[in-house]
Amino acid sequence: MDAITRDLQKPVPWTLLYADDVRLASEDKGELGREVQAWCDRLERFGLKLGVKKTECLTTDVTESSSVKVNGIELPRTAVFMYLGSAVASDVKLMVEVNPRVSAAWFKWRSLTAVLCDKRIPERSSEDLQSNHPATIDVRR
């Protein structure tokens, strides 16, 4: 995909490619529509297809009424966009990304404290666990 679209690609962060995932960005909706259509046409020329059903449009302008069209099909708008496991929200706030990470860390911490604070677990086993998880070393002190 990189080779057949090299002339369509813009510098990071405007175009991001990872395997068969593409993220296009633009400051102008009309320009973005032209870019997406150019990508769609180029992929079709080489026997590939743009997954219109999996394609979404995210805008930070909440007053924007319409979306981008590809082959006459209007792309659905979304408030949160996931790309390679990271979330980008239309309100440009990080809570969509931060909350799940904090929850995952808290869940992991809760699962470790049962082992670290249990007096029935031999100290050697607990020390082995601490050496594998250096952030928990200060817990027992």
TrEMBL record:
Residues 1-88 form the Reverse transcriptase domain. Gene3D superfamilies: 3.30.70.270. InterPro entries: DNA/RNA_pol_sf, Rev_trsase/Diguanyl_cyclase, RT_dom. This is Reverse transcriptase domain-containing protein. It comes from Heligmosomoides polygyrus (Parasitic roundworm).
